[in-house]
Design a protein that fits this description.
There is one protein chain. With about 220 residues, this protein is mainly alpha-helical. Helix content is about 55%, strand content about 0%. It folds into 2 domains: about 80 residues; about 90 residues, no CATH class. The chain contains 7 helices and no strands. α2 crosses α3, α5 crosses α6 and α5 crosses α7. The protein starts with about 25 loop residues before the first helix and ends with a helix. About 15% of the residues are buried.
């Protein structure tokens, strides 16, 4: 009596499968949506759609940071189904034409920044200080801002700089409205560089800490 040996399953390659519409959700979600489209009973199809949306939320947790993320999940559900899934959505179903709409071009600021390492906000602050009444208060605020300008300069240039250069920039950017005496001494360059190095080290430590936390979360999900 001969025994039939079962045939091995044919290997299924990605090249032979349907193209992934939204890869972030994985192929199983796409197959679940394709199966839901074959369900004839509407109530059962609606229940399947709601269950799929719930799973999509778990598989793509970063989308929860978006306002009204459930609306986005339902939009993705219809997008993956090529808008062929006939279910009762709690949100308006997006028309197919929305895929062809091009995003509006973002206009770049037309105003020029004289010194990139200070930034536009710094220039605006300097002009505001220039409008203040002359006196000790204005000088103190200007000196504090000059120290911040020196720190910004050293952050981008990573080199020493004379206080006279910073004071000259302060006067130039204020159109001569803010002038500090040449005898004013700003924070020492070595001190600022040490602070910048410490700040960078703290940022790197925080980055490593965040990565470790993400790895632990992924392990828990597995």
């Amino acid at each position: 009596m001969s025994t039939k040996i079962p045939r091995p399953k044919i290997m299924e390659y990605n090249s032979s499968r349907n193209q992934m519409v939204i890869p972030e959700y994985g192929r199983n979600i796409q197959k679940m949506i394709e199966y839901a489209m074959t369900i004839e009973d509407r109530e059962e199809r609606n229940r399947a759609a709601k269950a799929i949306v719930t799973v999509m939320g778990f598989l793509n947790p970063q989308i929860r940071d978006i306002v009204d993320f459930k609306h986005k999940l339902w939009d993705h559900l219809f997008l993956i189904s090529d808008f062929k899934l006939d279910v009762d959505s709690p949100y308006p179903i997006p028309p197919r034409e929305t895929l062809k709409v091009k995003p509006q071009r973002i206009k770049y600021p037309e105003s020029n920044i004289r010194y990139k390492y200070y930034g536009k906000a710094m220039e605006q602050m300097i002009r505001k200080i220039g409008e203040l009444e002359e006196g000790e208060r204005k000088n103190q605020i200007a000196q504090n801002l000059a120290n911040f300008m020196k720190m910004s300069y050293l952050t981008w240039n990573k080199d020493s700089v004379d206080d006279s250069t910073i004071l000259g920039h302060l006067e130039e950017l204020s159109d001569g409205q803010v002038k500090l005496h040449e005898e004013v001494r700003l924070n020492h360059t070595a001190q600022i560089l040490a602070m910048n190095a410490q700040k960078k080290q703290l940022q790197q430590q925080q980055h490593v800490k965040n990565n470790n936390a993400k790895r632990q979360q992924r392990r828990k999900k597995k």
